[in-house]
């Protein structure tokens, strides 16, 4: 991929940039030139410093040492407002939207049309012009809080486009998007590059690095490993530089079931809930990993939520070890040994204002009480045990969760649930926003949970992940389970044809009776 010829001098220059959070140095003496008319990938393991570097460019963080230049201007007192003033916009992995406002209001927040300090109309017209140009498929009057996560992410993308930025930092912009939406976003990125803009692409998807980026910079442990063109690179060469060694990034195959005839630990019988889930039946045995595959909007997440008690069951039955769940709520589900790793760990899984110790000990508080209060020593010991078992870095129980990388935050979330020794584990996009190194570790965690006898229901938009980790896979379409496939004899293409209800492959792969 070749963009426009870069202008004289880099669009962004970093010289010996260092960033610290407390005693931890997350970037050390990073020097890098980024040019107009290119898509530049920042890659590395979670915790390597790639998101931090992107946030320094976008004004979210200020460097503790070194200099940042934008279009030849040495930045002083750098902030997101100053960055926007210099044509630098950031699309962060952590969404920063106003849920009670409309899509159009969020897109133009801070740059609304005004006359003599009074806001004027015309937002929807400006929005339609933007939508016509970029085609992200959003309704201007929709309330952002009512949108699915993938569409909220597109609002963030459109907000950056509305500012006509010359430098756009994208931090994991595709983590919630479907394959078609990713393809559309990559077309937008190519157009931005061809207009002479710089796109800084922070991602753990190596296919995106190789497919849409002109150059890449690899970081490891806060230091720059190397920078160069993506031509001639492979997934293996990138991973080896990220980790400092070769690694096996394949899926961790599940252990064979002790008994394929065992009674199901989790069973759904003709379950319906809300407007999305209308007829779901499935079974998961102890020690079994069962995948749930479907297109966006098929109702997969809603199934997990209704099992956990976060959404109301309106029809059918949910049984655990053959017994119907009583009046459902998350608290009652936890008491029955049901764990839920949600898609959005930041708003639904972790307490971002607390440290690792408090998050890990959250569900074990009753066991950690001494004389009516939670024992800090006991809670700290539990956190240290999970840090060691899950290889969380930094290995400090008092480290703020908000300052951890995405992969380490996800490990903390797993650690929180592992303290209750769950019997049923509901996983919704468990590797979203996680790099290749942490991803392999999470695959091992999932296999370990099943090996300990838990019934695991795995939801993922990555079909290869579902097929690679599961003993069996149910297919969902329009809120209903429509069949079951054997991962050993089924390809991702087979599943896609089945999900789109194309008969060419469903006859070969699909058992139309899910039970």
Reconstruct the topology from this structure.
Blueprint lengths: L11 E10 L2 E11 L3 E6 L6 H8 L7 E6 L2 E2 L5 H6 L2 E4 L11 H5 L6 E2 L2 E2 L3 H12 L14 H14 L4 E5 L7 H16 L3 E5 L3 H7 L2 E6 L2 E7 L5 H9 L22 E8 L3 E8 L4 E6 L5 H9 L6 E6 L2 E2 L5 H6 L2 E4 L3 H5 L6 H5 L8 E2 L2 E2 L1 H15 L15 H13 L5 E5 L7 H16 L3 E5 L3 H7 L2 E6 L2 E6 L6 H8 L3 H7 L6
Parallel strand pairs: 3-10, 3-11, 6-9, 9-10, 15-22, 15-23, 18-21, 21-22
Antiparallel strand pairs: 1-2, 1-4, 4-5, 7-8, 11-12, 13-14, 13-16, 16-17, 19-20, 23-24
Helix pairs in contact: 13-14, 14-15, 17-18
Descriptive overview:
This protein is α/β, with parallel strands linked by helices. The protein has two domains: about 10-245, Rossmann fold (3-Layer(aba) Sandwich), CATH 3.40.50.300; about 265-295 and about 310-450 and about 470-500, Rossmann fold, CATH 3.40.50. The protein has 18 helices and 24 strands. The strands form six sheets. It has a six-stranded mixed beta sheet with strand order 6-9-10-3-11-12, sandwiched between helices. The longest helix has 16 residues, at about 180-195. The relative contact order is 0.11.
């Amino acid at each position: 991929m070749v963009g426009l010829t870069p202008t004289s001098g880099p669009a962004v220059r970093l010289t010996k940039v260092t960033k610290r959070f407390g005693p931890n140095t997350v970037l050390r003496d990073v020097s890098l030139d980024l040019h107009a008319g290119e898509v530049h990938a920042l890659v590395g393991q979670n915790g390597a410093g790639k998101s931090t570097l992107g946030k320094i460019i976008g004004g979210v963080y200020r460097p503790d040492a070194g200099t940042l230049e934008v279009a030849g201007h040495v930045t002083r007192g750098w902030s997101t407002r100053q960055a926007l003033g210099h044509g630098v916009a950031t699309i962060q992995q952590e969404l920063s939207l106003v849920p009670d406002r409309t899509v159009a209001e969020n897109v133009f927040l801070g740059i609304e049309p005004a006359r003599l300090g009074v806001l004027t109309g015309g937002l929807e017209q400006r929005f339609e012009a933007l939508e016509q140009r970029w085609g992200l498929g959003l309704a201007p009057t929709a309330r952002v809080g009512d949108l699915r996560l993938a569409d909220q992410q597109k609002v963030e993308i459109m907000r950056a486009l509305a500012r006509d930025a010359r430098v756009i930092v994208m931090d994991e912009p595709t983590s919630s998007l479907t394959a078609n939406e990713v393809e559309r976003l990559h077309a937008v990125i190519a157009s931005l590059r061809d207009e002479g803009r710089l796109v800084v692409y922070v991602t753990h998807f190596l296919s995106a690095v190789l497919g849409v980026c002109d150059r890449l910079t690899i970081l490891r442990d806060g230091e720059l490993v190397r920078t160069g063109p993506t031509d001639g690179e492979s997934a293996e060469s990138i991973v080896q530089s990220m980790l400092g060694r070769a690694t096996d990034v394949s899926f961790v195959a599940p252990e064979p079931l002790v008994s394929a005839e065992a009674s199901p630990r989790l069973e759904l019988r003709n379950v319906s809930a809300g407007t999305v889930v209308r007829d779901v039946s499935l079974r998961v045995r102890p020690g079994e990993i069962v995948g749930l595959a479907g297109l966006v909007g098929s109702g997969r997440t809603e199934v997990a939520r209704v099992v956990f008690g976060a959404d109301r069951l309106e029809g059918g039955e949910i049984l655990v070890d053959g017994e119907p769940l009583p009046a459902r709520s998350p608290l009652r589900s936890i008491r029955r040994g049901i764990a839920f790793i949600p898609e959005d760990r930041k708003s639904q899984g972790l307490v971002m204002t607390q440290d690792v110790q408090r998050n890990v000990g959250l569900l074990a508080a009753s066991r950690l009480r001494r004389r009516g209060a939670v024992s800090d020593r006991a809670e700290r010991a539990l956190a240290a045990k999970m840090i060691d078992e899950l290889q969380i870095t930094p290995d400090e129980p008092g480290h703020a969760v908000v300052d951890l990388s995405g992969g380490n935050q996800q490990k903390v979330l797993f650690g929180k649930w592992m303290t209750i020794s769950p019997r049923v584990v509901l996983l919704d996009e468990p590797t979203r926003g996680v790099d290749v190194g942490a991803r392999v570790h999470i695959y091992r965690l999932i296999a370990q949970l099943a090996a300990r006898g838990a019934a695991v229901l795995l939801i993922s938009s990555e079909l290869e992940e579902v097929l690679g980790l599961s003993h069996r896979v149910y297919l969902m379409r329009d809120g209903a389970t429509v069949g079951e496939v054997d991962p050993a004899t089924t390809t991702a293409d087979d599943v896609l044809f089945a999900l789109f209800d194309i008969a060419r492959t469903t006859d070969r792969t699909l058992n139309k009776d899910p039970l």
